[in-house]
Design goal:
alpha+beta; 5-stranded antiparallel β-sheet; 37% helix
Length: 291
């Protein structure tokens, strides 16, 4: 299970074990780790001689039974003991200020990249949308966006639209068609995630040197609460209008900033004025009738 999961990781990841000889031996390494260390998985054996500084770090992790993080060469190494003799090591770049801002942003933020660039304006657009549906992958996503979708980051990284929009593929195609045509869009839509909800977002395409689309990024805000509040306000206003109309209640409103007055027809009728033929919004007209 660990091997299958680690093989999908973009960061170098390796499985180490303390051999009977006392040396740290690499049992397995993913492609990123092999590329960094050199050679192939078959040639990766003892690292005690080549990387002696790992002796103390791994010994401390095995002794404590708890994960340890350490910095080296502008990288952060996570050392996690799996049992009394086996450890998992993963290296990743030290978090930049951008990464910290990205992770703490209250709106959802994500980056998506196509496996291969597409020449949108010179190709078969329907066929290109078919391709993007299965080859447009999430490469970065913050916690706020994960909460909107309702799935953890490790389940979303590397996924394609088919994994999330299968219930509403046509809506996804319409939205992407507009985005690819215009290069950027800002709109509200009903997102078909775990639970349907409304979001408002801004999305921008990315391009290569030949002008082909390589992917897009976006910011997205959950507006379910705001939308429900607006609907409730509209419903409340409608009920009030029905009550005023049914009870023939006369109402008026004065704006002291604009110096305008608004009266409804019931109020006007009580004083014998015609709503359609009276300059009833002009305060001076009313002032002239005051005694």
């Amino acid at each position: 299970m660990f091997v299958r999961l680690a093989e999908t990781r973009a960061h170098p990841t390796a499985l180490l074990r303390r051999a009977e000889s006392g040396e740290l031996v690499i049992l397995w390494a993913n492609r990123a780790a092999v590329a960094r260390l050199g050679g192939d998985t078959g040639s990766l054996r003892s690292i005690s001689a080549e990387y002696p500084h790992w002796e103390a770090v791994c010994a401390a992790a095995l002794a404590s039974g708890r994960p340890i993080e350490t910095d080296a060469e502008n990288l952060v190494y996570s050392v996690t003991p799996l049992d009394a003799h086996t450890l998992a090591i993963e290296s990743r770049p030290r978090e930049s200020r951008f990464d910290m801002l990205f992770s703490q942003f209250i709106d959802g933020v994500f980056f998506m990249q196509l496996d291969e660039p597409i020449d949108w304006h010179n190709g078969d657009k329907e066929a290109l949308l078919d391709y993007a549906f299965d080859h447009l992958r999430i490469t970065m996503i913050n916690e706020a966006m994960c909460e909107q979708i309702g799935r953890p980051r490790n389940e979303l990284l590397g996924t394609v639209p088919r994994d999330r929009w299968v219930r509403s593929a046509e809506a996804w195609r319409r939205n992407m068609h507009v985005l690819y045509d215009q290069g950027q869009v800002h709109h509200s839509l009903c997102a078909k995630y775990e639970n349907d909800h409304w979001v408002e977002g801004a999305y921008v395409c990315t391009y290569d040197a030949q002008g082909r689309i390589t992917g897009h990024y976006g910011t997205q805000r959950d507006v379910n609460n705001e939308r429900e509040a607006a609907l409730e306000l509209a419903r409340s206003q409608h009920r009030l209008e029905l009550a005023i109309e049914g009870g023939e209640i006369g109402v008026w409103e004065y704006d002291p900033v604009r110096h305008t007055v608004i009266y409804d027809r019931h109020w006007m009728a009580r004083f014998g004025f015609d709503l359609d033929r009276t300059p009833w919004t002009e305060t001076q007209w009313w002032a002239n009738r005051m005694h």
